[in-house]
Structures are given as structure tokens and as C-alpha cells.
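batch_manifest entry 22 of 60
target: DUF1468 domain-containing protein
source organism: Virgibacillus oceani
requested by: lab member K.T.
priority: normal
notes from requester: please return C-alpha cells only, no post-processing; we will run our own comparison against the previous entry in this batch. if the run fails, retry once and flag.
--- input ---
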Amino acid sequence: MFGTTNRKISICLIAVGIFYLILSFRLPAYAYVPIDSDMIPIGLGFLLLILAVFLFFTNDQKTNDNDERIPKKELPIVLGVVGFIVCYIFFLEILGFILVTVLFLFFCSMFLGYKKHVVNGIVSLAVPILIYLLFDSFLQVQLPTGILPF
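--- output ---
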């Protein structure tokens, strides 16, 4: 029953989704707000459960080689991206959402081999600013400002 990789991963994701939903339903409710603080986490939890169930019922596309491990030449890339994510989490409160997200997007995409630095810089600036404005103005959710004065 749990022989394929998709089924093993989906069972783990279902367990994580159930745990995440339990914690999401425990978030405090606030009066007089148009969108409560638990709406997005609950929606994401149900989405994770639905996608995990779909994954359970999909067939593995087996290739000739049964080696499902990460190739050794790609391991430094995976560890580098994990390092970027850990640094992002560590510096988020200290430096603020906009600054850390700009640095993360720019340097992570450079690390992954994207060569057009001007386009990379424009996207790395535009995306965090738009997300910040969306959360701050429309959703009225405060993101960490860090060292920036706004």
C-alpha cells in the first residue's frame, strides 16, 4: 500500500497538514477585522491536504534507474539554497521584510545561475515592494520593517 515514493511522501504531508490545521484553528480571533488572522493558514492547510491526497493517488513515473537520491553534483546547490533560506529566516526580523527579501531573491537567483543582473535587480526590488504594499495597505497586516523607517 505504501510502496511508492509518492505515497510515502503524501502520508507525511497529510500528517503535517493535519498538525498545521490544528495549530491554525487555535489562532486567536479578532473582532472588527474584515479578514481574520486564521483565514490564510487554514486555507493553506486544506490546500496542503487536498494536494497530498492527489499525490497519494498519482502513479510514480519510474525510470530505468531506481536511484532516487540527489546526485552528488547537485548537493551543494541544494545545501546552498537551504543556507539562503536559513539566513532569510534569521535576518527577517532584524533587517525587515523588504530588505531581506530583496537580498534573498537577488543572491539566490544569482547563485542558481541567472545571468541577467539588471532584470534580476528589478524583479528583486519590485516583488517585495508590491507584496509589502499589498499586505500593508489592502490586508492591513504588518510585516517586519527592521531597520527601514516605514
